[in-house]
Amino acid sequence: TSPMWKNSLKFMEPNMSGIGGLHMVPTAERIVQEKVQPRLESQDPDLRLELAPDIRELLMQEIRDHSEAVGRPARNILFVEPKYASSGIDEQEELAQYFHDTYGMKVLHADPSELSLSGGEALAGGEVFYAGEQIDLAYRDYTVNDLLALGKTGVDISPMKALFKQNRMISSITAELDQKACWEVLTDSRIAGKYFSADERQIFRRHVLWTRIVSDRKTTLPDGDEGDLLEFVRDERETLVLKPNRSCGGEGVIIGTASTEAEWQAGLEAAVADPTRWVVQQLASIPVHEFPVVGPDGVVHTEPFHVVMGFASTHYGVAILGRASQKQVVNVAQRGGMCVVFVGRMTSRLHGPAAAAMRGEGI
Fold it and tell me: Which residues pair with 129 in a beta bridge?
């Protein structure tokens, strides 16, 4: 809603292999829509609020489209995740039940270790089974790196390989580009200038945070000049963030302004030495909003929360996955919570040229 959104909107990282909040976000949206929205509208009858597209519906449409593209009927859909992990967000079982109840489809929920492959190593033509059911298409919340690590423990991961090889996995193998280092391609003018138009590069400069893989080298710095990367990171602690390149859940993030000089230097040395790679990124200014909170005494008061949004875009719409936390690292795994985002519509009681131009547009 900010009139300065074209300056303030910043993309921090891509997340292409799995979508967080597939069950929790739309559930929170419908609770707020059912319990809160009527009370808001009773106070202001001209209020016009509606929800953004449901991420579950967009995902199901993608599943159907992909099934049609590969020539497989969408009979048995499999959701794959670390089913027996002792920690982390567990929502795929609830999601599978939702799809079953809503669409009458058989949606299965499995760990990679529970799958089998017919035809042995015939990955190109083998069929994948779970509990005796033949799988047509799978959705994963599992990185290839984690799968390879699982294979080293003795688990047979050939069924997962077959699904990838046959293009029956969402997200496909190309989602392994899902790493924070992708932003270096977009924010290094020497690289972006070869592959993107002037208009695209302008969008990158305005909205994509300057990001670099941490290593001992020279690179273009945020001001456009070339310089020593490690020297820049040491000197500009208060404007930067260090992040593991592939980790999720806010794990390992070091915010310069929230760390001491010694902590920052130690984090930088560890990042340089880590073969799995880290990135350094410009510190984003995370919006802070006041939210009503019910205290232990039952009295409502306001408290500040940092707010971020995830955008899941498809041909059929854009779902918004809002999150709020009192920590600067806004993540559900870091005790953050869902933040429901409504789309507002201008009403006829607003007057003037600006209102006329905006009326009917989403806010």
Answer: 116, 134
